Amino acid sequence: MFSRQATFPLVGLVLLLGCTSENPEAQVKRAFVRCVQDLEAGDGRAALEVLGPAFEGPEGLDRDGARLYLLGLLQQGRIGITVVQSRIEAGEQEAFQEVDVLLTRRGGRTLLPDETSRQSFQIRWERRKGAWKVKSLQNRS
Questions:
Q1: Where are the alpha helices (DSSP H) in 21-62?
Q2: Which backbone phi and psi does 36 adopt, to 5 degrees?
Q3: Cβ–Cβ contacts within 10 Å for residue 137, how many?
Q4: CA dist., res. 57 & res. 61, Å (int)
Q5: CA–CA gap between residue 34 and residue 30 (Å, rounded)
Q6: 42 with 73: CB under 8 angstroms?
């Protein structure tokens, strides 16, 4: 059995650890930011880690289709992603994100982008085995 003197520091430590743990919204934001960083670094394999096994994208795109599309896109040049606006609503197991981004692409060694477009997406997230995964991504009108 624990004495009162030994229990008090233990309870304090548990409360402190509980206060510093990230809430679901912060966890989703961290997963999104990591994916953006991977895309900008040209690491398609790492970026695809965020997609869930039953991922659904625009026009029926599945996880394998997203992989092929993304790897082909990354071969054409560097991608830049600027998050203009992001809103996340998260529960314990599911989250919804609306995000507006400015996408740029440049090939070769040019400093200025070859293409620029503003895109809006709706992203549905789900927690799978403790990690947040993208369940669906759709263009927002």
A1: 24-40, 44-48
A2: -60, -45
A3: 20
A4: 5
A5: 6
A6: no
CA dihedral sign of residues 79, 83, 89, 91: positive
Both tokens of residue 1?
């059995």
Count Cβ neighbours within 10 Å for each residue of 28-57 and write b for 16 or more, e otherwise: bbebbeebbebbeeeebeebbebbbeebbb
Domains and CATH numbers, the chain: 22-139 (3.10.450.50)
Going 92 to 96 to 102 to 105, the CA torsion angle's sign is positive
pLDDT in tens, 34-70: 999 999 999 999 999 999 999 999 999 999 999 998 8
